[in-house]
What does this fold into?
Amino acid sequence: MSRSTPQVQGTWDTRFAPLRDVFAEAFRSGSEIGAAVAVVLDGRLVVDLRAGHADPARTQPWTRDTIVHLYSVTKGMTALCAHRLIERGALDLDAPVARYWPAFAQQGKDAIPVRWLLSHRAGLPALREPLPAEALYDWDAMCRALAAAAPCVEPGAPVYHPMTFGWLVGELVRCVDGRGVGRFFAEEIAQPLDADLFIGLGPAEEKRAADLTSLEPPAELLAAFEAAPSDGLPLVALAFVNPMGTGDHNSPQHRRAEIPAINGHGDARALARIYGALARGGTLGGVRVLAAESVERARTLEVEGVDPLLEI
It folds into this structure.
């Protein structure tokens, strides 16, 4: 390995030596700046690797304590919160959302059931009314806007909700439980499992977060922008960038906010522990994330088909 190539650190079971080699090759080839990978198998951590740097300038090493922005992996954590409430009978999959969140009944949304929020069928993959950039960090403003909005696609049809999923499901959790989704996740899942994963960072955790490289929009999305009529952006653009712009994902404001579709921060071990528990019927190390029957309900196929939002 050359002097300029970061050394892979950590531990791995010899059965996973090929995985370690693939991970190392990503740094030899120059395709990675910093990363980590972990595997939990049968309740045991069998891979825990890290390498590289936690900043694009390559001045800060990626350490065992580094956490990173998880983007849509956060959706799974948010859904887990809802499934814990379903398991204890506080939330009914087939009840209307408006039973728990009365304001959601506006604009003909009174009959939309809870299960449609969890399966991207709420009819609100985007907000058509443009919102200012600062609304991204304003929980109440986003939930008011979603409650007041008319569906922009037919409810019941599967259409990916890239940003709105987090506020929709997160507000449902808050309405039922009283805790915000970040606190609920911390107290009910992350802390009991000793999983280093957060939805909304505090100052101490913020210092451990890796800085991201700039994220270039896909060429297809840029083309959709360019082809937009003068009276508005296409739905796919609004779904990803309304509130207008995506903000600076390395900023304290972004890291501290609760944006539970995209801005969870954590390490690879945390994700391996959480999904490792689900893979074993919902329990790991004596900590129950979900009962086995709840895991089966959560993984049952709800709907399938071609998503028109992403069929650019």
